[in-house]
Amino acid sequence: MHQVMIGADILEANEQMADHNRGHFKEHGVYVVNLMSAPGAGKTSVLEQTINRIKDDRRLGVIEGDLMTTIDADRISALGVPSYQITTGTVCHLDAKMVHSALHSFKIDDFDLLFIENVGNLVAIWSARPSFTSEKICA
Asked: What is the pTM of this model?
C-alpha cells in the first residue's frame, strides 16, 4: 500500500494564535486555567466556589464560553469578578482566536489569574487548544 502524506496542518493557525496568547499571558504574569467538561457537569458551580474562596487574595478574571446564553457570565459578574461572554452559537469549543479577541475587552494587567470556562466538547477541545497554562476537567 502506498501512503500519501498531506502536509497542511489544519490547526496550525490556531496553534500559532495559542502561542501568541501564551506569550501575552507570560509577559503580563497571568496564570490561565481552562475548565472543561460536558454541559451541566458543574463547571460554573466549581468556579463560583473557587472564586468565593480566593477572590480576596487574587486578581481574577473569567472568560465564559457558552453556546447560547450569558447565564454563567452573569453568575460570575454577580460575584464581583470581571467576566467576558463568548457566545459560540453552534461551535462546540473555544479556540485561540476567540480567547484572543476576548482579551481585548479586559485590562490584562488587572489579573494574575484568568479562568476560561470552556463550552464542553472534550474531543474538540483537545484538537483546538485555546492557549492556557493549566487544564482542569470536571467530570
From this structure: 0.83
